[in-house]
Design goal:
Strand content: under 5%
Oligomer: single chain
Structural class: mainly alpha
Order of helices and strands: HHHHHHHH
Largest sheet: none
Low-confidence stretches: none
Helix content: 55-70%
Number of strands: 0
Number of helices: 8
Distance between the termini: 40 Å
Mean pLDDT: 92
Length: about 160
């Protein structure tokens, strides 16, 4: 594997791979200088923010030169202000937690489990579908109940 392929794989694994490097037309990235890499999303965003903040360039022109829209620039600026460099790494896609298993649903499951401790998670999943119209995997129910048990004991999840 070449150095370029290794770097691409590393950037991808870190969620920092710019999927549109060809959209970056800023001279620093197109001049062939090995330091600036249009595939490095964090570097591209950081340099875009620096150009506006330090050099006083216009947001719309700078954002376009770096392959971003104005709203994307402001989102990156906000992320930078809130979290620094790590804020420029895109968040993992997908749900952030048990969005189906709300507190109300988990409370019903706990009540059912208290009434009948022998209830299996598959039976609880069927109950959730019947009462709430939600299709939930039994393993998700196990994890939700385990999180609740940890919270009840006073330990962090």
């Amino acid at each position: 594997m070449s150095h370029s392929d290794e770097k691409r794989a590393t950037l991808h694994a870190a969620r920092a791979l710019n999927t549109r490097p060809e959209a970056v037309v800023d001279p620093a990235f197109t001049s062939g200088d090995a330091f600036f890499d249009a595939r490095d999303l964090v570097q591209v965003k950081y340099e875009m923010l620096r150009r506006v903040q330090v050099e006083g360039q216009a947001v719309s022109t700078t954002a376009a030169a770096f392959g971003f829209s104005r709203p994307s620039f402001y989102a990156a600026q906000s992320a930078w202000q809130d979290a620094g460099l790590p804020g420029l790494i895109p968040a993992r896609p997908g749900p952030r937690g048990g969005h189906k298993l709300t507190e109300a649903v988990v409370n019903v499951l706990l009540e059912q489990r208290a009434r009948d401790p022998q209830l299996r998670t598959a039976q609880l999943a069927a109950l959730v579908q019947e009462q709430f119209g939600l299709v939930v995997h039994p393993r998700s129910i196990e994890r939700a109940l385990a999180r609740h048990t940890k919270k009840a004991r006073g330990t962090s999840p």
